[in-house]
Structure formats: structure tokens, C-alpha cells
Write the C-alpha cells for this entry.
Amino acid sequence: MPRIPLIENRDDIVDADQLAAFDHIISTRGKVLRPFAIALYRPPTAGALTDLGSEIRYGSILNDRDREVLTCSVAHAQRCEFEWVSHIRFAKEVGVSDATLEAIRNDTYVLDADDALLVEFALELCRTGFVNTSTFERMRERLGNEGVVEAVILIGYYTMLALLLNSFEVSS
């Protein structure tokens, strides 16, 4: 049970700012997903989160597969069940193997070398707040400077959503 009531429907809205943010979320997502149902308590922030999420999801220079491997790695690192359940479906749709997802979930070796690098990068950053030089340079070689910047922003965004969901005890 969430620690605060979720703002998921128009009936839950208390003021014009929430309504504007609610409508903005609906226009970009089609519905109010759980992290946004919490963020709507701060309408300007909810709108900004929506825009950043849309950019990460739909304007990304990362390919869909890499984006979902990174996102699932964050969900696991942050122990965010909602994020994990939401994104394994997307990951499978874009070709992430069950073996990679199982390895992420179980903290075991990821066989696919490209996936392994993404997982290593995300987990290092999530668990320590830093990425060692070797891991960073391999990621930069693979994704270029722009791609590494985007990967870090993605990791930060999904970490923020995971912390929001976990703090308010919102599960799937």
C-alpha cells in the first residue's frame, strides 16, 4: 500500500496546477504511471519528469536494446520491483535475452559482451556513484562521448524514479 494516495485519476486532482500537469502526462504517456502519480504532488516537477522521460525514451541516441539493458540494471540495483516489472516487458520486446535478464536479476555473469558492459557500467554507477576508468573508456569506445553522457543521464533518471517509488512504497 503506497504511503500517500496516488494521483491517478482526474477525481484525485485538487488544483489547476495538478490538472495541467496531469493533462501533460496523459498527452505524452496515455495514462498516469505510478511514478508520475506521486510526482503530481509537485506539478512543475511532474511535468519536468515527464519531459525528461520522453526525451530519454523517444529521443534517445541509444538504441532501444541498450536503453532497456541499462534501465533493467538500474531497476535491479535500486531493488525497484515496479521499474523491473515494467521494463522487462519492454526489454524482451526489443530483443534482450532471457539469459541477460536472469543474469541481471541474479547478479550473475552476463554472457553477451555488449550487454555485460552496459550492466557493469550501470551497476558500478548505481552502487558506488562512480565508474572506474576501464569501464568508462570501454563504454566511451562503444557509445562515443554523447552516448556515454546519455547513458549516465538515463541511469540517473531511472534511479530517481526508483527512489521515488521505493520511498513511497509503490509496487507493481
In short: The domain at 64-167 is CATH 1.20.1290.10 (AhpD-like). The mean pLDDT is 95. Helices lie at 16-29, 34-39, 43-58, 64-77, 81-93, 98-106, 113-128, 133-167. The chain is about 70% helix and 0% strand.
